[in-house]
Structures are given as structure tokens and as C-alpha cells.
Design brief:
about 300 residues, about 40% strand, globular, binds copper (II) ion
Length: about 300
């Protein structure tokens, strides 16, 4: 098995010492503040359809937030779009593994939402920085894991079910998503306050969606493969999300347990793990019919 390391950039990270917050999280959320970000891909500026306005009311009940406040209706099945992509994974073999952070974990300040007291009031305490989210044993969330092989766009028709990013507690949930080119990307506004979803793609068309509190959702469709589209909120500058627009369904995003699972046909693959600041790592693996191959990644801060 061959490993390579491709740190995100040479302008990597400045660590900040913070006071007081880290101990409170008891290892559940440990945070890194990092400086410059990884750039997206380059390329032409072709297609994107934006702004088709959804608005079908979901029937699901609200989610209780800080202080017993009841959230707006949540998407009925926020995982449906991701599940539809997973269903396209064809194969009798499985790639799985766990992503772990092995470096010294810096202590970093929580997200400061004081600029919007309404946002701050949606949380009982400090809001963990989303840049590096670690679980027990320093497993890493928000890692985009994919099979790096050449797939032609159109080999896997895009599901019509949208992948959903919910604006909840003035954060994007999830923070990292993948979808197929041409599959709708829906932004939900569970907060019922003004957000502004601003996507800054390089290969797709920029989108800028004003979302007043009365608007449940808006959708865009990104038709050109691109990793990764950066999404931010112009009202709340701490809100960030990353969207991978893919040609194939052989990917997964880790939760706090750091694990992923991808069904594939038997074969030899290059598996890539991407993190928004820690960059990418790749490993090669061969998996046979009916077999499960374990490909773990250990991430550290790139040198230099
Ligand atoms: Cu916002």
C-alpha cells in the first residue's frame, strides 16, 4: 500500500492558543484555527442553475434548541439525497476505514456569534469551531473520502432528490457534503432568520441566495464537477460549508467517529481523504469480490 501526502498549501496554518474553552469540551470537540484555505479548482465558467425556489412545507416537527426554543420545521428527510447517491454505488466489495488526527491538538477559541445575538441565543454555551472537529480518540469528522479514478460525467445519472444543507443555529449542517453534478443542492432555513447563502465556485456559476426567515428553502443545481465549492453566509461570516460536485457516487463523508464506507466493484483503487485545512492524503488498495478492505488515514499538520 502506497501513501502520499499532499498538504493543502504552503501557507498553512497558524496555531492560536486560546484560553479556557478546550477543557470544557472534554475531548468531544477539539478545535484548530488555521489560516489560509485551500483553493478550489480552476477552470472555465460554465453552467449552474440557481435560485429555483422551493418552499414545500415539511411536516417534520421542530428541533429543540437552547433554552427550549423550538426550531422551524426541519427537512423531512435530509439524508434522502445522500442516500440516493449511495444507492448508485455498485459493487460487491467495500472500502472502509477510520480517519484519526495524530498531531498535537491545539486549543482554539469557539465561534464568536456575538455579532448576532439571535444566533448566540440558539446555543447554550460556546460554539465549537468547525474547522477541525474531533471525536473520542481524535477521530476526525468532515473528511471527504473518495475513490480517485476517472469517471465520465453522465456515467451515473444525477438523482433528482436534493442533497440538503440545513441552516440551523447559524451553522451549516452538514459542514461538508458531496453530490453528483446536476443533482439539486437545497439550502434549508430552520433558523427562520435572515441568512444569505453565497457560493463561490470556480467551475460553476456563482450563486447568492437571500433567505429571509420566512423562506424555508432554496435550491441550486451545479452542473460542472468541482471540488470543492465554498459556501458562506454574508450575514454571518463564520458560516462555512464545502460542497464536492462529483461525477461518481464513490465517496463518503466522515462523522465524528471518523469512519467511512464505500461500496465498489472489486479492483485496485486510489483512495483520497480530504480535509478543508489538513489537505489530502491518498493510499492505494486492492479489494476482491465480496471483500472489505480497510484503509485508515492518520492526519497531522503538514510541515512547512
Ligand atoms: Cu447566516
Amino acid at each position: 500500500m502506497k501513501s502520499t501526502c499532499s498538504p493543502c498549501s504552503d501557507r498553512f496554518f497558524h496555531r492560536r492558543v486560546f484560553g479556557g474553552f478546550g477543557a470544557l469540551t472534554a475531548g468531544l470537540f477539539l478545535l484548530v484555527v488555521l489560516a489560509a484555505g485551500c483553493g478550489g479548482g480552476g477552470g472555465e465558467k460554465p453552467t449552474a442553475e440557481g435560485g429555483d425556489q422551493g418552499g414545500e412545507a415539511a411536516a417534520a416537527g421542530g428541533e429543540e434548541m437552547a433554552g427550549g426554543e423550538q426550531m422551524a420545521e426541519a427537512p423531512q428527510d435530509p439524508e434522502a439525497g445522500t442516500d440516493a447517491v449511495k444507492a448508485l454505488q455498485k459493487g460487491s466489495a467495500t472500502l472502509t476505514g477510520t480517519i484519526t488526527y495524530v498531531g498535537q491538538v491545539p486549543s482554539l477559541p469557539p465561534i464568536d456569534m456575538n455579532a448576532d445575538p439571535v444566533c448566540a441565543s440558539k446555543h447554550d454555551g460556546p460554539v465549537p469551531n468547525e474547522t477541525l472537529v474531533l471525536g473520542d480518540g481524535n477521530t476526525v469528522a468532515n473528511i471527504f473520502v473518495q475513490v480517485k479514478d476517472s469517471f465520465a460525467q453522465g456515467d451515473y445519472p444525477a438523482p433528482s432528490t436534493p442533497v440538503v444543507i440545513d441552516q440551523r443555529g447559524c451553522l451549516y449542517h452538514p459542514h461538508v457534503v458531496g453530490l453528483l453534478a446536476g443533482q439539486p443542492l437545497q439550502f434549508w432555513n430552520s433558523d427562520q432568520i435572515l441568512h444569505n447563502v453565497h457560493g463561490t465556485p470556480e467551475a460553476n456559476r456563482e450563486f447568492n441566495l437571500g433567505m429571509p426567515g420566512t423562506l424555508h428553502d432554496k435550491s441550486v443545481t451545479l452542473n460542472t464537477p468541482e471540488e470543492f465549492v465554498h459556501v458562506k453566509c454574508d450575514v454571518h461570516p463564520w458560516m462555512k460549508a464545502f460542497v464536492a460536485v462529483m461525477t461518481h457516487p464513490y465517496f463518503d463523508v466522515t462523522g465524528k467517529d471518523g469512519t467511512y464506507s464505500i461500496k465498489v466493484p472489486p479492483g485496485t483503487y486510489t483512495v483520497e481523504a480530504w480535509h478543508e485545512k489538513l489537505g489530502t492524503r491518498t493510499q492505494e488498495v486492492t479489494v476482491g469480490d465480496g471483500e472489505t478492505a480497510t484503509v485508515d488515514f492518520q492526519l497531522d499538520v503538514p510541515k512547512g
